[in-house]
Amino acid sequence: MSTLDRQKTLNKLIKQIETSSIQEEVISASIEASKLLSEDYQYEESILILDQLLPLFQNQHEHPSYDVILVLLIENALKGNLKTDALNYINLRKESLKILDEYKYTLDLIEFKKAFNEPYFHLIDDLIKVNVSKEIIAPLIFEKIIKNKTNYEDALKDIETLKRYEIKEYHEPIKAIYYYLLYNNDLEVLEFELKKDDSVISKYYELLLLIDKNLYKQAQILEVEYEQDFDKLPLNLQQHLYKRLVSFYKDDLRSLEHYTEKLENTTKLLTKEEVKEQSVLKLPKKKKETPKKEEPLEFKDAKLKQISISHDEVLFKIDKYMLSIIGLKRNVSFHEYLRQMSIQMEKYFNFSDILFNFNYEVYHYKKERLYEKKIDRQILDTTVLGISANKYEDIIEYTKNLKYDYDILTNKRLSETDVKSVYVYALENRSSICFYKKED
């Protein structure tokens, strides 16, 4: 589809979103428009068009389109490198998943960790412990083995786990990795294992061992017998073997020439593969070289402009009050001090709840009682409390207008609760204070 055709399609979908009174039509058009924008690398616009649908599902999480929308939102946030957005949508999806589908939350976290280069092997270990289908867990275990080969003990353990699933397509790759690990860590066990195996990969490592031991005659016999089979191995394995054989046959001119030629040919093939991979990665940039430059799809925001609220006077009062309490002496525990401070604060301002975030230590005050809350860092970072602390900025807004409105008290969106507005005040040292107000 040409850019012009895609633009016409997008315009038609946006018009349908704006004018249709049938909810299912709006949902369907929004999903298709979002996909078009995502294909055009406009991830934030794709998110915007789907995000405004979420209030429609606040009381119908079982609606089949709700999960589809959340999955698309998560994918676009990850592709767009929008960390806070991604966590927000991942946590929203978590709350809507059925018990049997709770593993999908861990899968989402794995994709999140990959996208932002964070450790995620422990999440794969968590999935192994639950009843997840082998089609889902096996590729993840294999990926972990490949990336964790330097951790010998863990890799061997994961190999044994993957073997139990008995998936044919992983049989040979796992065997190759297993021998690789033994070759680099335990030659005695490797020799024992090779005696039980007659596969090409076992002969490959057997030949490497013979070369290492400088057993010329035995190595020569094995090399001649399996030469054609070795030529069918992956190119990187061929290259390594031919390098070893070139060095091994340094005094045998005929064999030296033969394997030098093989090594050169294999190296050329590997270089071609690398160039091919690089050209695939650079394909998006080729658009600039075409005579007719394709313009990105023009997206006109179908969302109504929100009216923000201004409470400068309230912020001024909070600011003055916070400054006044900083100088108070603490002759009681911190918990009691914070409770007493909150009681005094309640006299000044009309709020239903107060949330404190002191560098991820969270407290909740309500009606003269103070509770310590254990909140996961990743979840806290998707709330106004965490965002205010991390960005060091104040947030004053109606809950219906909030983009990040996950409520740590109810595990719902704030717009689904009776909280009408929030006043979030950023403090130093990645801290913040948040006031809930239930009246307009």
**What are the segments in which pLDDT stays under 50 over at least 5 consecutive residues?**
277-293, 302-311
Name given to the CATH architecture of the domain at 312-437: 2-Layer Sandwich
Bulk shape: elongated
Q: What is the succession of H and E elements?
A: HHHHHHHHHHHHHHHHHHEEEHHEEEEE
Number of strands: 8
Taken as a percent bin, the fraction of beta residues is 5-15%
The CATH homologous superfamily of the domain at 312-437: GAF domain
Largest sheet: 6 strands, antiparallel
CATH topology of the domain at 312-437: Beta-Lactamase
Strand ordering within the main sheet? 3-2-1-8-7-4
Indicate the percent of residues in helices. 55-70%
Could you explain the architecture of this structure?
The protein has 440 residues and is of the alpha+beta class. Among the domains are: 1-118, Tetratricopeptide repeat domain (Serine Threonine Protein Phosphatase 5, Tetratricopeptide repeat); 312-437, 2-Layer Sandwich (Beta-Lactamase). Helices cover 58% and strands 9% of the residues. It is built from 20 helices and 8 strands. The protein has helices at 3-19, 23-39, 43-51, 64-79, 83-96, 103-115, 121-129, 134-147, 152-164, 171-185, 187-194, 200-212, 216-225, 227-230, 235-248, 253-281, 312-326, 334-348, 377-380, 384-391, and strands at 353-358, 361-366, 369-373, 395-398, 406-407, 412-413, 421-427, 431-437. It has a 6-stranded antiparallel beta sheet, with helices on both faces. It has a two-stranded antiparallel ribbon with strand order 5-6. Strand 2 and strand 3 (369-373) form a beta hairpin. Helix 3 (43-51) runs antiparallel to helix 4 (64-79). The protein is elongated and about 95 Å long. The protein starts with a helix and ends with a strand. Residues 277-293 and 302-311 have low confidence and may be disordered.
